[in-house]
Amino acid sequence: QMKRYLDAIAQYKKIVEDYPATLVAPSALFQMGVAYYYYSNLDELKGKPKEKEAAVLKSTEAFLEYYRKYPESKQALQALYLGAWGYYRLGKWEDASKTFLKFVRRYPKSRQAPEALFRAGESLFNLKRWDDAYAIFLRVEKEYPKSEWVDDAIYSRAWCFVNKGEKEKAVPLFERLVAEFREGDYGPLAQFTLGDYYYGEERYEEAKAAYEKFIKLFPNHPRVKRAKMLLSNIAEISAYKFYSQGELLFDQEKYKEAIKIFEQVLQKYPKSVYAASALVNIGASYQAMEDYDKAAEYYRRVIKEYGNDPNALSQVKFAETQLKNLIEARAITMK
What is the pLDDT of residue 209? Predict the structure, then answer.
């Protein structure tokens, strides 16, 4: 109680070693594990990783020794559980997984069992044993369908697929999280991840729909800003695809078809960096077809709409030059 943990540990250790047959020996062994546990969490050990690790190991050993010696005692459940957590804290993933699984076998109906089963899978996940981890995560849902760890298990199963390079198989699991666990921690993450998946696969229309759904469902989420940025990127990518089709038609002197494509760029992506160029090329297409009044109309639009835009200087200059040439050639009137 006075946080003199090392002094307490020394006393408990003396009882365990010198008086192993006494009634207080089991309690002393358990309390030694507790004291090491609290000692390992002291602020003064934050900058001493080796001392902290040693304390965690001692705590783990004490709890597991208690369980081995007194498996039928009232504190055996807690001792085994804390021993498993000790391995987890130490990053001893194989031992952690085995000990958590042992706990589930021994105490399948305990309140800690669902989390213990999940942590067993998570430990294998950390070892990159995706198939073994997946099997345990699946057990969480099957054996404890009403526990609070079901969504954690589904999310982790999805990432097993992702890490195996089978991303398409993860999609239904992410979609399920959004549908069934929208209010939990993983609903927003799953919806955003769907957008990232489609974006990475260059399936931009599906990515756009996923990010828009994310913003609609989770308008106050910290990732909304990034979702909007990615939507802007998708718009530019899509605009470029349209625009490049128009350029190809223009180069092939298929001016009417090119105009239709450039008009779509203006309609669908009016804020795109390609909008000014689309206007210019519509004007150039009409000029090539000798429809000079129409050409002038679009050149004037470029000057009016983008005259003050520093990102459209070259387009504005081109439009001004072409408009001047048309006037000087008396192909159009000055108006």
Answer: 97
**Check whether domain 1-90 has CATH 1.20.58, yes or no:** yes
Give every CB contact of residue 153 below 8 A, 6+ residues apart in sequence.
Answer: 118, 121, 137, 138, 140, 141
Task: Enter the pTM of the model.
Answer: 0.80
Length of the chain: 335
Q: Which residues contact 77 (CB under 8 A, 6 or more apart)?
A: 103, 106, 107, 110, 112
Is-contact 298 258, C-beta < 8 A?
no
- Are the CB atoms for 255 and 288 separated by under 8 Å? yes
- pLDDT confidence of residue 228: 97
Cβ proximity of 186 and 202 under 8 Å: no
User: Was domain 245-328 assigned CATH 3.90.199.10?
Assistant: no
CATH T-level assignment (fold) for domain 91-165? 1.25.40
Q: Look up residue 65 and give its amino acid.
A: E
Mean pLDDT of 94-110: 98
Chain centroid to CA 121: 19
